[in-house]
Design goal:
26 helices; about 725 residues; disordered C terminus; six-stranded mixed beta sheet; Transferase(Phosphotransferase), domain 1; four-stranded antiparallel beta sheet; binds adenosine-5'-triphosphate; flat; Phosphorylase Kinase, domain 1; alpha+beta; about 10% strand
Amino acid sequence: MPSRPFPANPSSLTPRPPSFLTKTRVLFLALTISASLVILASIIYFLYHLWHSLVHRAKTIPFDSSAPLKLQRFSYKELKNASNDFDASNVIGKGGSGTVFRGILRSGKLIAIKRLDALSLQTEREFQNELQILGGLRSPFLVTLLGYCVEKNNRILVYEYMPNKSLQESLFGDGVSSLSWERRFEVILDVTRALEFLHLGCDPPVIHGDIKPSNVLLDFDYRAKISDFGLSRIKVEGEFGVDMFSQDLGKSQELWKSQELSGNLTAETPTVSTPVESSAHEVDFALALQASSSSKNSRSCYYNAKALNLNSVNYNANIATESDVIRSGGNNAKGKEVSIVDFGGDGWNHKFVPYDDEPPCSIDHSKELNSNNTSSPVDEALDAKQWGKDWWWRQDGSGELCSKDYVMEWIGSQICPSTNPDWDEGKKTIQEKVEGEEHSTALDELEEGNEPHLQGFGFKHSDKVFEKKESRWRRNCKKKPRKMQEWWREEHLAEISKKKGSSSSSKLKSLETKWKKGFKIPHFDLGRRFYFRRRKNFAEQSQNECDENGEFSFRRGWKKNKNNHSVGSDMWSGDLFSRELSSTTSMRGTLCYVAPEYGGCGYLMEKADIYSLGVLILVIVSGRRPLHVLASPMKLEKANLISWCRQLAQAGNVLELVDEKLKDEYNKDQASLCINLAITCLQKMPELRPDIGEIVRILRGEMDLPPLPFEFSPSPPSKLYSRSRRKHKVTD
Ligand SMILES: Nc1ncnc2c1ncn2[C@@H]1O[C@H](COP(=O)(O)OP(=O)(O)OP(=O)(O)O)[C@@H](O)[C@H]1O
């Protein structure tokens, strides 16, 4: 008998209610639809990004600083031959960082060869900047960097040759054949196009950082091209303009520390094929500089550059105080010592010892870097990064003292009747004015004790003629506060004495004696780039050495150039001044061209270039230097180009600023447009300055000039109006 089938689970036999089936179906459908929607959205998102990046790329040049265009590597011999053994007759210019020679390659191509001065951290930094930034850019408005040479301590850059040299020569050179208005206007247009390319055409944007006449070179047809990217920045991280040199500092410092911890700071120096292939070396230089500037108590910093991964340069970046070296007997170092910064002895000696001549030495900078060991590694990394951003203008732990103020004070002191033949005319008013103000009378005070030195500094022209006036002036000056001198005395001597201790007390004494006698603070070449940097042989550099070929660079300190071919050096250089500044805070840029917000205390942004452009435009239009106090008789109010321009604008007569050499042969509309544009670029608040896109459009006549800032305006609007306008502009 067939067995009855086992009844299935009664529940399975129960037919599912239709509602359940529907629910499942709906759920399945919903899931499918949402999944497809997600997939679709992802595809759209991906496509959008692809499209966006393609469109963006089409507009800007993707700028990868680590992968510059192919540059030719020249051998030293090749360049030596090209320049006839770097013959003096081939010198075409001399800047703060090196000498420029004319050269001819075997192919017959003319080149400009810039041989950088003795290897130093600064030189190296500029060399790297030039290679990594200019080397990665090509534009008809930028001087083309053709190649480089790295051999032993030689750092050479090779550029396209610019037959008409720089705008500095054209405007202020010997036997100046005056630039016509058309050429001047073209130069202004070219410079703005160059900046347009850098700020808007490059991705990320590049900030030049040193726009001035000597960095505007002129080709055969007097078309202008921008050069010298030694101070340039690549704007990264959205908002901040970060130095190539310091942007990776945090990273590298972490790396460096971890290497140190793991005992891995060895002499096994990485071999790198080209300077541009390495991205770490500049960072380690920053470290080295930081250490040098922060090691308040160290008398020497031994630089051992591991990460200076230059071709044929193998050394360890590592830094130690002298005491560390002594303690370890000089045996710790596994790398090679490349340079020594000696804060002892006669002052701020900065000795760079050829790395290949020196024995290995001990390096242990960990104490300096890790002086506060309580912080976490993350904090340290952050600190390091922040530190990296600030190092340039923080020296010796002297806080945030803004060098600009000091410089400005000094400039104030330079506008002095002894050097200004025209002073007599407005003497009364000026005397009253100066007495009423806090202007330092440093120069006059200094002049008192050191008359013979004046000649060396270029005061000889006016000495005899104004002897009487001077003595009268000095009598007046005696009553005034010796602000700058006192400042120097307090800050500098105290600092030196602290640093050197008793061992150098005799030198300090002699310095103080000199001080009592009265130092001369000569004029320095305004318009030259300045850095604060420790200068070799502090005491040795007597003022008598100063000659009219000397140049002042805060980067280099004062230096005597026997073969100085650079023009515009009628503003003499200041040895003492450079030392004063070098020992306090740091700053970079070119005096009078550097934007106020960047006066040693801020980030370099596009608007800093705009400010420099404003100064440059005024210089081009007027044919005057921004600060013109010595070269020719003039009224005091004309000495400062910007304030003179402001006065003219208020009087509604800006065209008086136009170079007299042009006579009436210039386009008045263009000239007043340029001057008014410059005025808008020179506004103190960066956000009020137009951006480069607007400037180009204004110059092309495609956009109206914004209303002049009220302080420049002939008829200043009411405070209320001006305030609201400003507010409006800021919110724009
Ligand atoms: N490619 C070039 N072709 C022709 N002349 C050049 C070229 N490059 C530089 N020069 C000349 O050499 C001079 C010095 O240039 P360099 O860039 O070394 O210094 P600078 O800009 O005057 O000063 P600093 O480097 O201190 O800012 C220029 O003013 C210019 O006359």
